[in-house]
Amino acid sequence: MTLHLQSLRRLALCASVAVVSVWTSGCSTFTPFASSTGQQAQTKAPVLSTAKAVLSRPDTRPESSLGLKVELSPPAAIARESLSLPAEPVVEAHPIDPLNPGSVVNLDDDRAREDLWQRIRGGFQLPELESELVDQHVQWYAARPEYVTRMTQRANRYLYHIVEEVERRGLPAELALLPFIESAFNPQALSSARASGIWQFMPATGKHFDLRQNLFRDDRRDVLASTDAALSYLQRLHRMFGDWHLALAAYNWGEGNVQRAIRRNAQQGLPTDYLSLNMPAETRHYVPKLHAVRRLVASPESHQVTLAPIENHPYFLSVPIERDIDVALAAELAGLSMNDFRALNPSMNKPVILAAGTPQILLPYENASLFSKNLRTHQGPLASWTAWQVRRTMRPADAAKQVGMSERELREVNRIPPRMLVKAGSTLLVPRGKEHDRDVSERLADSAMIALAPDGPSTKRRVVRARAKDSVKSIARRYGVPASQVAQWNKVGTRASFAKGHRVVLYLPVSKRNLAAESGKVRKVAKSSRSAKSSTKMARKSGKQSKVRVASAR
Question: pTM for this one?
Answer without folding.
Answer: 0.70
